[in-house]
Amino acid sequence: MVGEITRSPWPRIPADTDLAHLKRWRGQRIPAHAQHQARLEHQTHAHTVTITERRTPRDPDDGSEWTSRPLAQRRHSLHGWRLHWADSNSRWQVIHDVPTATDLTPPLKVIDDPDQPPFLG
What string of DSSP letters covers 30-57? Predict the structure, then answer.
C-alpha cells in the first residue's frame, strides 16, 4: 500500500555511530603502555559484531603471529542486539541475564564488569 511503512524482517547491520563508539571503547580498554602487547579488534559480518582480544607471541624471536581469542559477540535479531560469549569450544552462547538492546553500546559496560562471566575482568 502506498505511504505505508513496513518493517524489514531482516536483522539490521550496526549503525556507523555504534561502530564508532565501539572503536573508541576498544582504544580505551587496553592501557597505552600495553598496546604493543595486546589489543582489541572487532569484525562485522551482516548482523553480527565480534570482539576479539589479540596478544603478541610469548617469544617474539620465533616468528609467531599474534594470537586471537574471541571475547564477545553481538547478534541482531528481530528483537534487537543480544550479547554472546565464547565457551571453551569457541561456540557462542547467549548471556540470558543481559537484556536485548537497541544498539551496541550498553553491552560494553557488561564486558567491562569484572563480576560478569568470562570477559576481560
Answer: S-GGGTTTEEEEEEEETTEEEEEEEE--
Q: What is the CA radius of gyration of the chain?
A: 17
Q: Are 53 and 69 in contact (CB under 8 A)?
A: yes
pTM: 0.77
- Each residue of 72-106: pLDDT tens digit? 999 988 888 899 988 888 899 998 888 888 887 77
Q: What is the pLDDT of residues 14-61, one digit of tens each?
A: 778 888 888 888 888 888 999 889 999 999 988 899 999 999 887 777
What element of type H or E holds 19?
A: helix 16-29
Distance (Å, whole) CA 83 – CA 113 = 14
Longest dimension (CA), the chain: 66
Instruction: Give the E-state strand segments of the chain in sequence order.
Output: 38-45, 48-55, 67-77, 80-86, 92-94
